[in-house]
Amino acid sequence: MLRRGFQLVKGLGQITGQKFSTGRNGITIRPLLSTGTQWDTGSPFQTIRPLTMSPWPFSTQPRDYSLPNASWSEEMKRLYDHYNALCEVEVEGGGKRKGPWRRLPSYNRTIKYATGGRCLSKVLQAKARLFTRNIEEQGAGFEYVVFSNKQEKRCVCVFQAGHLLEGPPGHVHGGAIATIIDSVTGTLASYLSGPVMTANLSINYRSPIPLGSVVLVHSSLERTEGRKTFVTCQVTSADGSKLHTEATGLFVSINVGHLFGA
Ligand SMILES: CCCCCCCC/C=C\CCCCCCCC(=O)SCCNC(=O)CCNC(=O)[C@H](O)C(C)(C)COP(=O)(O)OP(=O)(O)OC[C@H]1O[C@@H](n2cnc3c(N)ncnc32)[C@H](O)[C@@H]1OP(=O)(O)O
């Protein structure tokens, strides 16, 4: 159980960019997501099935789902380029240095060993996938990339909602909107406060989101109180002129042992 806790903490560090202390040793973070390669199906009895074409197919790197793919619309790519450019700033005399923004990589499973939990068999645990990254067809589900700004304690997600997320005809399902809000606010809260769980999410749906459109999910820190991190969230059209959804979230810091019944 303790070993699992370490794996979880290290995995979080990789996702959030934080170095989580695991006690005496202060373990160095290294890629843990080695099962999520481009050729990986997640099954212990692997069927080789390429997700993307690569000149060297036997990559040991997991696929980063927050990078552009062929399904991204021009609008999605434009917004990606816009925020990506803010990740670096030009310095006098040429050259570049890190800017205030950071693109957060995104994988289809959070942690190699700590997925699923106590109620799943090992085989099912091996198959566990992050909810927002479990649709294989590019562009069909959640296409998104999160950029964070630690100084300003906020993040922005560029989100393109695919056709499998339909709720009302031609529009995005409210549960899918809640999912992306939970993911973005949860990512911000863990980026700022370390391991957290959603305690409360309150959502007001103001105007429907057309299926296939690109929207921005803005999330900011409101305040922290002890173990509690309060964040706000607005989903707007890509040009910011239309408010689609507003939300507030409460995230409670946890000891990772919480997830394993400690
Ligand atoms: C480790 C995960 C990290 C994820 C992030 C990874 C990085 C990014 C990676 C990939 C991107 C994807 C990101 C996805 C993000 C999704 C996150 C989720 O969906 S999480 C699943 C849904 N949430 C649950 O299942 C929680 C179930 N609830 C619980 O486990 C507990 O209730 C918990 C941990 C929330 C609190 O339990 P207690 O025993 O630790 O603490 P107590 O004492 O009850 O509460 C602490 C304080 O919070 C208040 N509080 C608790 N719940 C509240 C509520 N619902 N409303 C208002 N206040 C509440 C309490 O009144 C207390 O306040 P006072 O300190 O006394 O001032």
UniProtKB/TrEMBL annotation:
Gene3D superfamilies, per database record: Hotdog Thioesterase
GO cellular component, one term: ruffle membrane
Domain Thioesterase: 170-242
Catalytic function, reaction form: decanoyl-CoA + H2O = decanoate + CoA + H(+); hexadecanoyl-CoA + H2O = hexadecanoate + CoA + H(+); dodecanoyl-CoA + H2O = dodecanoate + CoA + H(+); (5Z,8Z,11Z,14Z)-eicosatetraenoyl-CoA + H2O = (5Z,8Z,11Z,14Z)-eicosatetraenoate + CoA + H(+)
EC number from the UniProt entry: 3.1.2.2
Location within or outside the cell: Cell projection, Ruffle membrane; Cytoplasm; Mitochondrion inner membrane; Mitochondrion intermembrane space
Keywords: Apoptosis, Cell membrane, Cell projection, Cytoplasm, Fatty acid metabolism, Hydrolase, Lipid metabolism, Membrane, Mitochondrion, Mitochondrion inner membrane, Transit peptide
One Gene Ontology MF term: hydrolase activity
CDD domains xrefs: PaaI_thioesterase
GO biological process, one term: apoptotic process
Bilayer topology annotation: Peripheral membrane protein
UniProt key word Nucleotide-binding: no
InterPro entries the record matches: HotDog_dom_sf, THEM4/THEM5_acyl-CoA_thioest, Thioestr_dom
Main location: membrane
Domain of life assignment: Eukaryota
Pfam families assigned to the protein according to its UniProt record, in alphabetical order: 4HBT
Family: Belongs to the THEM4/THEM5 thioesterase family.
Protein name, UniProt field: Acyl-coenzyme A thioesterase THEM4
Species assigned in the record: Chanos chanos (Milkfish)
